[in-house]
Amino acid sequence: QVQLVESGGGLVQAGGSLRLSCAASGSIFIIVGMGWYRQAPGKQRELVASITASGSTTYTDSVKGRFTISRDNAKNTVFLQMNSLKPEDTAVYYCAAKISDSLKWSDYWGQGTQVTVSI
């Protein structure tokens, strides 16, 4: 089995910064892609940022220039550096990964970490 464990959420004032981390562990042969999603109350879950094994990144328009996704392949960990945070960034942030155990590909999710940005 594979587990994704997130950390780094919390309460911050608008304009502040937070850094989220997500570590994958378990029966991992290769991690193809990792990403961060978020879900605000009453809204659908949306993809915030993603990164491939080779380091290619994508961002949703609302976070471009403010958020940076990165990964440490040796530690099976993905990070999300969030700067210039806005109240509209408030949401539960979920880590996701597409992982192979050498037999099959599967999608995995973390438990979520709350990010709250106050005015």
- Residue runs with pLDDT of under 50 for 5 or more positions: none
Number of strands: 11
Q: Which series of helices and strands comes N to C?
A: EEEEEEEEEEE
Helical content (DSSP H or I, runs of 4+): under 10%
Strand content: over 45%
- Distance from N terminus to C terminus (CA atoms, Å) equals 41 Å
Tell me about the biggest sheet?
A: 7 strands, mixed
Q: How many helical stretches?
A: 0
What characteristic shape results from the CA principal axes? elongated
Specify the structural class. Answer: mainly beta
List keywords for this structure.
single chain, 119 residues, mainly beta, four-stranded antiparallel beta sheet, 11 strands
Structural summary, described in words:
- This protein is about 0% helix and about 60% strand.
- It contains no helices and 11 strands.
- Strands 2, 4, 5, 6, 9, 10 and 11 form a 7-stranded mixed β-sheet that branches. It has a 4-stranded antiparallel β-sheet with strand order 1-3-8-7, with no helix packed on it.
- A hairpin with a 4-residue loop joins β5 (about 45-50) and β6 (about 55-60).
- The termini are far apart.
What is the strand and helix layout of this fold?
Elements: E1 2-7, E2 10-13, E3 18-26, E4 30-39, E5 46-52, E6 57-59, E7 67-72, E8 77-82, E9 91-100, E10 105-109, E11 113-118
Briefly characterize the structure.
The chain contains no helices and 11 strands. With 119 residues, the protein is mainly beta.
